[in-house]
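Dear Dr. K.,

Following up on our conversation at the group meeting, I've run the structure prediction for Iron export ABC transporter permease subunit FetB from Leminorella grimontii. I'm pasting the input sequence below exactly as I used it, so you can double-check it against your construct before we proceed with anything downstream. Let me know if the numbering doesn't match what you have in your notebook.
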Amino acid sequence: MSQHNITNESLALSMLLVLVAILISHKEKLALEKDILWSIGRAVVQLIIVGYVLKYIFELNNAALTVLMVLFICFNAALNAKKRSRYIDRAFAISFVSITTGAVLTLVVLVLSGSIEFVPMQVIPISGMIAGNAMVAVGLCYNNLGQRFSSERQQIQEMLSLGATPRMASDRLIRDSIRASLIPTVDSAKTVGLVSLPGMMSGLIFAGIDPVMAIKYQIMVTFMLLSTASLSTIIACYLGYRKFYNQRHQLVVREVKK
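The predicted structure tokens came back this morning:
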């Protein structure tokens, strides 16, 4: 197996790629130079911290600490999903429940089926992938729900005036929102291997693993991303739509936060 070692010098030279992006931003007057530098600096600091934390956790190999790390990942994913909920106030609880439920159920199936072992070196990276994917799907779910409730307010109010319950009046919107939120994940699964070689597969091949074995791992990743995104989005939609009604079952559509 070939070894690929990245030295500090080669890593520093790779910063030239960032300089290209900064120069383009400056030349085209995009005003993104500060944002690029801030995002790169933040990413480097975060990755260095996470690298040392993961090294400690992997060496310790403690089950309780592994579970806490999974919950920490889900917590941060829920925080970021909440920031994307422009139409729903205080969406953190919904985000945390939906993302954690989807991630935990997927991990349980993977562990019980023998696809992965319950060790931090396998559970934590997998948790990061599925929680990140669920975070994006849940964020899309919130925006899709809000846009549909806002654009179809009149139809919903007419249904409510005719005696429909909030669930009945929202049923089609929920289905459409779930479908729209899952489109990026479904499209990604359709084109995997044809348009893109995903991160796990590319990383394993780069590390010298047999491509056929890398493909098996990528198939497993595709399965778990689809399942987690579906579960998390369904839970988020069915919990989130209630935020558009008050206690008297009246429609309340909030203004979009700027």
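Two things stood out to me. Residues 22 and 35 are 10 Å apart (CA to CA). The chain has ten helices and no strands.

Best regards,
J.T.
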